[in-house]
Amino acid sequence: MKVNMNIIVRFVLSMALIVVGFSSCSKKSSSSSASRATGWNVSGKKAPSRNTPTAGPGLVFVEGGTFTMGKVQDDVMHDWNNTPTQQHVQSFYMDETEVTNFMYLEYLDWVKKVFPPTEESYRHIYLGASPDTLVWRNRLGYNETMTNNYLRHPAYANYPVVGVNWIQAVEFSKWRTNRVNEAILEKSGYLKKNAKTDEVDAESIYDTETYIISPTSAYGAKNDAVVLKKPQGRQVKKGEETKGNYATRSSGIVLPEYRLPTEAEWEYAAAADVGQREYNTYKGQKKYPWSGSHTRSGKRQSKGDQLANFKQGNGDYGGIAGWSDDGADITNEVKKYPANDFGLYDMAGNVAEWVADVYRPIIDNEANDFNYFRGNMYTKNKIGKDGKVEIVTKDKIQYDTLSNGKIMSRSFPGQIAQVPVDEQETYLRQNFDKSNNINYRDGDKQSSIYYNFGSSETGSDKPKFEMYNSPKHNVSVDSLGSMVRKYDKTSKRTTMINDEVRVYKGGSWRDRAYWLDPAQRRYFPQDMATDYIGFRCAMSKVGPKSEKRKSARN
Questions:
Q1: How confident is the model at residue 18, as a pLDDT?
Q2: Average pLDDT, the chain
Q3: Selected residue with higher pLDDT from 302 and 442
Q4: What confidence tier does 330 reach under pLDDT thresholds 50, 70, 90?
Q5: DSSP letters along 62-127, please?
Q6: Positive/negative CA dihedral, 469, 471, 477, 480
Q7: Please, which residues have CB within 8 angstroms of residue 175's CB and are 6 or more apart in sequence?
Q8: pLDDT at residue 408 above 70?
Q9: Which DSSP symbol is given to 434?
Q10: Is 284 exposed, middle or buried (0-12, 13-18, 19+ CB in 10 A)?
Q11: What is the DSSP string of 454-512?
Q12: Roughly how many angstroms between the first and final C-alpha of the chain, as a whole number?
């Protein structure tokens, strides 16, 4: 029998490729010791190597584009806050999953090490960062198991963190930015090896903006922690002339900040209409982040399985025991349900998610239809009397007392102090004229129906009514140092909307399927937390819109 040598050669080559493929997969999985929050090595194994980074750990690329924001198939609530508008979102990155308990505990461990809560001067920093575990309690329900275990027990490590208010989510994002860039600069040789763990205490903390503006001020001006490199990439030796360089934005290795996604970004990413694209148009609107109008899978391999974790009906959070349902009664481990067409998990169900925007009933696309966002607060670096940027020190930490009495740090040592922009930046500008732009065209004096456009804003012509007449709770500290809480009991308030309520999106384990529609929107006070709201981070993409070249033919 004759043997065709070409067939044998092709067979051997194909088997070799399969072996290589399996080995590369195993190598990829072996690098999972790197934290999805920071990229730090968290298990004692060597973290994966990285060249010039384009996105931080845990992020997935979301190519920007145009979409109809606020378009829902059902409006049984009759909220009248989802007027469809055409918007364009710039390309960005988003967390593949919601921030998990394990990721948030990495943050708490760092805070506890740097600002020991046993020291009175730092006690409020750790307590202010800690999630509210009491959100699980219910007057007529036994939930103490979650109260005591959900945040810290290993069984819940990969479950989404809850009990985190909007302000805490923002602070976590800032911390994550600094830890990721700190690891990148160390890997690139701009920081001393292990400086991120050995050089850190309450008086010497790395901050990305501080390093960019004033490198020698990083780590509390511990100059041996910041490495001066020769232009060719070689480190400067002792006694050698120090004409090296520090990493700058032009170096291309410092990543943009982690942050909460805007409402437009979150809705665009959740809807993932890219899966419905045909040439230069969308083939209809999705009701959920997946195709089809049902919550169960129609695919042959998983037919009948629920595609998200949500409340099925009264008293039904997880279906009948022993039968295929959504697999959870409270939250569920991330990645338990299929990803959407952008590769994002749990964009419907599990937990609802904070976004960056201040809530208003309307989306003003007449003012802007590109990267829409309401909540801009423009600041600038504070310059000291010596003409240099002012760095926050441990004795200048500022705290905010929230309306519910929780005390949170507003600044940390090592950061550059910030002040609102003033006339120096706004004079004769057309695009902005003040620091606080939350109320622009909706909530400011000019927006009020009582505003007299033909007169000045002083005296009797000053508006007497606010557009959003919401409760005004007050918390203060008396002369003895005791906290005094003053609850607004007036019956003349007309709304819960003010400048401290933030949008949250997506349905949760407590919600019916109605709320799984990506266009649905709700609001909640930014300083309060629940057992059904979590968050994920986003990062703006710098450079081209796409990661690969495309043409009209594809």
A1: 42
A2: 86
A3: 442
A4: very high
A5: E--EEEEET--S--TT-------EEEEE--EEEESSPPBHHHHHHHHHHHHHHS-TTSGGGHHHHH
A6: positive
A7: 107, 110, 111
A8: yes
A9: S
A10: exposed
A11: TS-SSGGGS--S-SS-----EEEE-TTS-EEEE----S----S-STTEEEEES--TTS-
A12: 47
Which stretch of 61-75, 152-166, 295-309 has the lowest confidence by average pLDDT? 295-309
Cα 171 off chain centre by = 9
d(CA 71, CA 365): 14
Task: Please tell me the number of Cα atoms within 13 Å of 198 on its side-chain side.
Answer: 10
Instruction: Pick the closest to residue 213 from 53, 52, 377, 380 (CA basis).
Output: 380
Single-letter code of the amino acid located at 231: P
Q: Which DSSP string corresponds to 125-158? A: HHHHHS--GGGG-BTTB--HHHHHHTTT-GGGTT
Contact 308, 328 (CB under 8 A): no
Q: For 134-153, what is each residue's pLDDT tens digit?
A: 999 999 999 999 999 999 99
> Any residues with CB less than 8 A from the CB of 125 and at least 6 apart, and which?
111, 115, 117, 397, 409, 412
Give percent helix, percent strand, percent coil of the chain, each to the nearest 5: 25, 15, 60
Q: Which candidate, 417, 99, 76, 463, places its Cα nearest to that of 259?
A: 99
Q: How many CB atoms lie within 10 A of CB 364?
A: 14
The overall longest dimension of the chain from CA atoms, in Å, is 108
Burial class, 239, CB count within 10 angstroms (exposed 0-12 / middle 13-18 / buried 19+): exposed
343: CB partners within 8 A, 6+ apart: 60, 96
pLDDT digits (tens, 9 = 90+) for 454-512: 665 554 455 567 788 899 888 877 767 677 888 888 888 889 999 999 999 999 999 99
For 32-46, 94-108, 128-142, which range has the lowest pLDDT when averaged over its residues?
32-46
Single out the residue of 174, 196, 172, 173 nearest to residue 183, CA to CA.
Answer: 196
Helix (H, G, I), strand (E, B) or coil at 175: helix
Q: What is the pLDDT of residues 44-81, one digit of tens each?
A: 544 444 444 578 999 999 999 999 999 888 888 887 88
93 pLDDT higher than 50 = yes
CA distance 554 to 550: 7
**CA gap 517, 513 in Å, rounded:** 8
pLDDT at 232: 57
Q: What residue type is assigned to position 108 of the chain? A: L
Q: Closest Cα to residue 506, out of 343, 374, 310, 284? A: 310
Confidence of residue 21 (pLDDT cuts 50, 70, 90): very low
Instruction: Identify the three-state secondary structure at position 251.
Output: helix
